[in-house]
Amino acid sequence: MPTHRLEARLHKIASDRRAITGIAVIINGEDTLVVNNDIRYPMMSVFKFHQALAVADCLDKKGLPLSTAIHISEEELRENTHSPLRDAYPKGKTDITIEELLVYTLQYSDNNACDILFGHVIGTEATDRYIRSLGLTDFAISANENDMHTDLRTCYDNWTTPLAAAELLEIFATRPILDDEYRSFITETMTGCDTGTDRLAKPLLDTKAIIGHKTGTGDRNGKGQIIGLNDIGFVILPDGQRYTIAVFVRDSAGSYRKTTRIIADISKAVYG
Q1: Which of 4, 120, 158, 227 is 20 to 30 Å from the Cα of 152, by its Cα?
Q2: Residue 227 in contact with residue 156, Cβ under 8 Å?
Q3: The domain 3-271: what is its CATH number?
Q4: Is 45 labeled as catalytic in the residue annotation?
Q5: From start to end of the chain, where are the E strands?
Q6: Which residues have CB under 8 Å from 5's CB, separation 6+?
Q7: What's the rounded Cα separation, in Å, for the pair 103 and 189?
Q8: Residue-level pLDDT at 16
């Protein structure tokens, strides 16, 4: 589909719903399409991709391998938050490698694993500075998962434009910002993402396309709206063509199922 027709199609999909939908697509590193890119979208767990890059850079600079272990206390495994890590180690008091923690964050979107990495490896402010060092400015990372869980208004403090998220994926895919060990690990882990298979991945499930992605899902705000429902990823087609895509849906008055469908419909339109 020609880019002008695709852009018109994306605008139509984004305008048909009871939500604010932002889209960015970068095709083969050349053609860029955006919809509603002048709005700040709560990242929710999408920022775990940003965190993974910052963690890898920190390890690289310190000469530490992914097998470096962190001792986890029971207090760090908070209740009332999404955490397969806590379910696996309910009492804590164990050593977990950074590699394992990143699998928990990138594949299972584990909130406790995320905050453990922020606490032991690199914090939110340093993560923000690292992403800015790559040349991006239209985003902010200031809150961890516990902050957002404690006060839902804080979810809006971690924000991005769709294009900034797509550009970060593009930087990761095309620039040597990380050693091959870390880059390959993050790529493989994202292609095994276990969350949000009904979003960007849905129209690609029965194809030979490769997708690596990271989702983000928020609670409902005081107005009863879903704070954010998101998915960002890279797609490699069998013929070698590729694209990065970021879809953010904020303040949705619809159901989670209908809001998720927005992302799947956009992914289907881009895949063609």
Answers
A1: 120
A2: yes
A3: 3.40.710.10
A4: yes
A5: 20-27, 31-35, 41-42, 69-72, 94-97, 139-140, 159-160, 210-217, 226-236, 242-252
A6: none
A7: 6
A8: 72
Q: Which of 209, 230, 70, 242 is nearest to 165 (CA)?
A: 230
152-188 residues labelled b (16+ CB within 10 A) or e (exposed)? eebbbbbbbbbbbbbbbbbbbbeeebbeeebbebbee
Q: What is the pLDDT of residue 165?
A: 98
The conformation of residue 38, written as its DSSP 8-state character, comes to T
End-to-end alpha carbon distance in the chain? 7
Q: Tell me which residue has tokens 């990138």.
A: 106
* Residue tagged active-site, from 45, 83, 109, 267: 45
Q: Name every residue whose Cβ is closer than 8 Å to that of residue 268 and which is 6 or more positions away in sequence.
A: 202, 203
Q: What is the DSSP string of 181-233?
A: HHHHHHHHHHHT--S-TTTTTGGGTTSS-EEEEEEEE--B-TTS-EEEEEEEE
Q: What's the pLDDT score for residue 1?
A: 57
Distance of alpha carbon 97 from alpha carbon 71, whole angstroms: 9
Rounded CA gap, 184 and 181, in Å?
5
Per DSSP (E only), the strands in 91-140 are: 94-97, 139-140
Asked if 125 and 142 count as a contact pair (C-beta separation under 8 A), the reply is yes
* Residue-wise pLDDT tens digits, 183-232: 999 999 999 997 889 999 999 999 999 999 999 999 999 999 999 999 99
Q: Distance between CA atoms of 69 and 67, rounded to whole angstroms?
A: 6
Which residues, given as ranges, of the chain have pLDDT below 70? Answer: 1
Give the pLDDT of residue 17: 73
Structure tokens at 136: 């991006």
